[in-house]
Amino acid sequence: MEPVRYDDRQEIVSLPLQPAAAKKRRNWKKHLYAALLLLPLLLFIIGFFVVPMLYILYLSFIETKGEAGAIYSIGNYVRFFTDPYYLHSLWLTIKVSLYTVIVSLLLGYPVALTMAKCSPRVRGLLTLLVASPLLISIVVRNFGWYLLLLPNGTVHQLLESLGITQSPPKLLFSETGVVIGLSNAYLPFMILSIATSLYNIDPSLEKAAAILGAGPFRSFVSITLPLSLPGIVSGIVLVFSMSMSAYVTPALMGGANVPMLPVVAYDQIINLLRWTYGSAVSYVLLGITLVIVTVFTRMMERGRYREVFR
Amino acid sequence: MQALANDVEIRGVSKRIGRNVILDGIDLEVKQGELLTLLGPSGCGKTSTLNVIAGFLDIDQGDVFIKGRRMTNVPAYKRGLGMVFQTYSLFPHMTVYENLDFGLSLRKVAKDEKKRRIQTALELVKMTGLENRYPRELSGGQRQRVAIARALVVQPTLLLLDEPLSNLDAKLRHELRAEIKRLQKEVGVTTIFVTHDQEEALSMSDRIVVMNKGKIEQVGTPTEIYAHPRTEFVFQFIGKSNQLEGTVKSLDSRMIRVELADGGQVLVEAENVMGADRSCTAGDAVKLYIRPEKLAIQAAGETPHNNSHAATIVQMNYLGSAWEIEVSLLGKRMQVLRPSVEAGWTIGTEVMVGWNPSDMMIVKK
Amino acid sequence: MKVLGKLRAAIAFLSLVYILIPLLVTIPASFTSASYPSFPPHGFSLQWYSKLLERPEFVEAFWNSVQFAFLAAFFSVLLGTLGAIAIAKYDIPGKSYLVSLLTSPLTVPQLVLGIALLVYFTPLLLAGTPTGLLIAHIVICVPYVVRFVLTGLSGFDYTLERAAAILGASPLTVFRRVTLPLIRPAILSGALFSFLTSFDNVTVSLFMISPGMRTLPLEIFSNMQDAYSPIVASVSSVVIIISVVLILLLEKIHGIGRLLGSSH
């Protein structure tokens, strides 16, 4: 490398050029570091997530494994969509998920509103209260409902003592029970989703509406509600998706009476060892959920309030 | 009900939040058709006063009357006012037309009348043709015009503006300043404007209310506020100021003679005393204030005014439209504003600086 | 119109109670002196806690869950933090796609994931083994760590690292003394979150176990289905207490609202 050259006034006249080779060596080293850090994680995810998911997708297209080899077809899917038992199960799952969404929305919006209106300290406390149950195991939360809803449980005793009824109300092991369990589990997601979009509403918008003559109700309907639509939509999508694929809560709160699709799929795989069919059922579940969610989201994003989503 | 010349009357309004006194005994009258500015630094209570008038802030004591009607317990949405906010606050999910339509629909105005009023309002703010745009498609200046149109289209009793120009760049601010002033005169609506920018206040207002720490310092026309400030705060807040200190030597009904710290003497007009009681006596320690443009600077040997003193040029700053010359005078540094400098003036030049006694303000320490 | 405000407050209060009530009734119910679970409990007794200690399957399940949770948290933090640092620091092509890929396990239902791993692990001889279960837990937990650390690094000023390097620090030292302390809260939160996620897990674990492997939530699950007794209340209470302690710790370090706000 050439040395630095100075002229008579001791000012730098030229600097040695960086040889292209040295620069390349440095870049290569940088890429090595990046690769070393990233590769374990990347390989892990690909190896233990992406590949398994693709594998069962592949399996779902295998009808039977005969002696000659596997027969590839969409037979499993055909079987699913032509069997009334499975179609009923799918419909039941969609129905229960819709009910869960409605309950979560109706119960969740007021909580989100309250959180948006209160002081930061109270808001922090409410967020903690709302979010904590999400980190407590679902079986424990369902057990609490068992205490409350079983025959001779708290609700039954309460109704008896109030003289309303003698026989136990059919809450557990019914669709109602599953909706209670699922809405209870997923309500925090709906609340947090709506609350986030409420926090982002410019507070002077409500002031502007009031000055123009809008009372609290009108201001809510014309301003707050439309502007919270993104949060509502993402909350609905979240709760719906999770309800569609929930296993533990429907199994515990519904049992054999409420054969939701995940419960059916579990049965197929674990008890009946029908892996290829079970794989197909899984992808049907994923596919239907995705289709419904996409249609819904598109509808909302193109509808009357599409500006809100920009 | 007698006809009132005051659209707004505020009597003895006070408000506390926790231990902070937000407003302390505010008395104010706003005349019909005038553009009144509430001016002061942040935290002085100007926005709070506006919010009290708008109905967004409850008061602990006092009364607010709008057009003779008592406003206690009247919520904001029933007051029939118009307001423009610092953050535009256009409804983002509605077009310009729908934004303007909002208030009119609430008042159940007939469809044709609505259309007419909206068109008129848009013409007024020079935003015709943009009815179907959404706020995010408009520039900052355009949004503010729409906000003003939206406030005016409902023909409000009062127009309230809460620092509407603070979010705009300097050029836009100047442009819109003139627009708002023109609009206000054209429409004739009583307007209350809040700002911390004294240039804005001086150029736009019919009257200015200078506020500080929840109290009113002075109410007056822009000239009164600038040339005849009644308190030290008002003098220092508006425009630049130079300060001297001294003791009152003697006074009569017309003039006060002050002896400065290092022996020089100055004359000040007696009516230029600032402060609560606006008077002083011999022996009082006082502070003297004068604006840079009121100081006359001449070459050494000439006597520009009654109060002339020898000074030395310490710094010369060229501002483009004028020169800001810092001089050392009587032991203190003072700023002088002069359109030009004489040839040969440089740091160290000896000069004479003088002023008119009527231009100096005096206040007890 | 004030009526509407009161109505909103009332519904909000009821909803909060609704969310918390299953947890609130479980703990008192565990102190019942009767032989069947009920709320309110009959009498007061600690029998169901002492009986818990006498039941080897619960004790074993508890320790298993704790161990799996520790290991899952450890590996998730290790893999996730290094990966997140690489993504945040270096100019990797297709960065956003990469992040989506690495956090995609969050978007797939645990049911499907469980099926996929069971089927996949069988020819690999991992099905029904502790290793397989651990891998499954790591798959679920690591996306959270990646998210948290990426967020923690998003405001990071890389000139700090360059300043340290100019002063003579080696890359390892730079990492240890400049980068690491700044992302410590994110790593701790990721560790705690992973621990809880693994400790709580039911659905995926159901597909990964073989007879003889026990985790605490799965014990609770099977007891609820065929051995409904107050002992389920006491073991559930234990889970609640442990979870609450860790949640409060998490709240102190990072603030739960911020964590969940950014993960969905």
From TrEMBL, chain A:
It holds the Pfam family BPD_transp_1. PROSITE patterns: ABC_TM1 (PS50928). It is found in: Cell membrane. The chain crosses the membrane at residues 32-58, 90-113, 125-148, 178-199, 220-243, 280-300. Residues 90-296 form the ABC transmembrane type-1 domain. InterPro entries: MetI-like, MetI-like_sf. It is a multi-pass membrane protein. GO terms for cellular component: plasma membrane. It comes from the Bacteria. CDD domains: TM_PBP2 (cd06261). Keywords: Cell membrane, Membrane, Plasmid, Transmembrane, Transmembrane helix, Transport. Its main location: membrane. GO terms for biological process: transmembrane transport. PANTHER family: ABC TRANSPORTER PERMEASE PROTEIN (PTHR42929:SF5), INNER MEMBRANE ABC TRANSPORTER PERMEASE PROTEIN YDCU-RELATED-RELATED (PTHR42929). Belongs to the binding-protein-dependent transport system permease family. CysTW subfamily. This is ABC transporter permease.
UniProtKB/TrEMBL annotation, chain C:
It is found in: Cell inner membrane; Cell membrane. It is a multi-pass membrane protein. The keyword Transmembrane helix applies. GO terms for biological process: transmembrane transport. Its main location: membrane. Keywords: Cell inner membrane, Cell membrane, Membrane, Plasmid, Transmembrane, Transmembrane helix, Transport. The chain crosses the membrane at residues 7-31, 61-85, 97-121, 133-153, 186-207, 227-250. One of its GO terms (cellular component) is plasma membrane. InterPro entries: MetI-like, MetI-like_sf. Residues 62-250 form the ABC transmembrane type-1 domain. Pfam families: BPD_transp_1. Belongs to the binding-protein-dependent transport system permease family. This is ABC transporter permease. It comes from Parageobacillus thermoglucosidasius (Geobacillus thermoglucosidasius).
